[in-house]
């Protein structure tokens, strides 16, 4: 009965338990395999043993004795036919790892519901080792059946002009599915690949690469342009008008005050502030044109039906497509090419608001010197927390 218990505890195929010994505080199970002659992995011919040594791996944990180890012989062999040399290996045991795959998975499972640091202290292992094992095996705890209804995809700059990334996130739950380097059509296609089978809505900005990648990777999904990015076209034009108009000077407080009055909805301003905005419009025709086009578009965005949205949007385009102000004309030309996406933007409840907060966290990690491996770990942790796997 004792031997049967030990055999089930070891749980390795085709191994024989020779004996158990203790070295200092380490319990070691000496294992061996039946006599056999491994074949050459290249030509499948007979091999001969060159050298042999024994190696130890962490394999399990018991409450009273702590971590116990297994010891197996590792041979260096040579093929008699082709001269190929190789080292023997065992299933579930990496020759370059300090622990078996089963032990690593058990450690990763132990981190659920507690902290990685607590598990590392309990096992008396380095924190970085436990963390690496956790993020290696944690994806197996998640469901492979990723079927989101709507996703947000957005690009972000770690360093503008140098280092970019793109991420995809569930629009309803906030679960981050992937983070990839780059911002071109190929990178966007790679990040959308895991969700392309079930997604019905894809929310993105107005970038042409986004549109092409979505049409290529998710042809049956409806492309929704994020409302924030549409309004951003107007706010950036207003800021350029403010700079050329000279309002706000260079003091931070004054600039923020002017930007708030120009970009805020008139209903949220006081009567005195609205009067100030009217005076500014009288002083600059371009500022007046951009400001009025923004308020008109906000009226369009309040449409309740698709028919009403089309009618109001067509009226907006007809009015501003040939506006004397070049900034308004440029915005109108950008929107007239994306009529279907703009209507979806008006009627859809999805936005990139959650994505913007996630991107800011990723940017902060990159700014602090974290590489893409740690950023992938951050995305994985968000998925685990969203799936209620982590406490």
TrEMBL record:
<feature type="domain" description="Transposase IS204/IS1001/IS1096/IS1165 helix-turn-helix">
    <location>
        <begin position="89"/>
        <end position="137"/>
    </location>
</feature>
<feature type="domain" description="Transposase IS204/IS1001/IS1096/IS1165 DDE">
    <location>
        <begin position="151"/>
        <end position="382"/>
    </location>
</feature>
<dbReference type="Pfam" id="PF01610">
    <property type="entry name" value="DDE_Tnp_ISL3"/>
</dbReference>
<dbReference type="InterPro" id="IPR032877">
    <property type="entry name" value="Transposase_HTH"/>
</dbReference>
<dbReference type="Pfam" id="PF13542">
    <property type="entry name" value="HTH_Tnp_ISL3"/>
</dbReference>
<dbReference type="InterPro" id="IPR002560">
    <property type="entry name" value="Transposase_DDE"/>
</dbReference>
<dbReference type="InterPro" id="IPR047951">
    <property type="entry name" value="Transpos_ISL3"/>
</dbReference>
<protein>
    <submittedName>
        <fullName>ISL3 family transposase</fullName>
    </submittedName>
</protein>
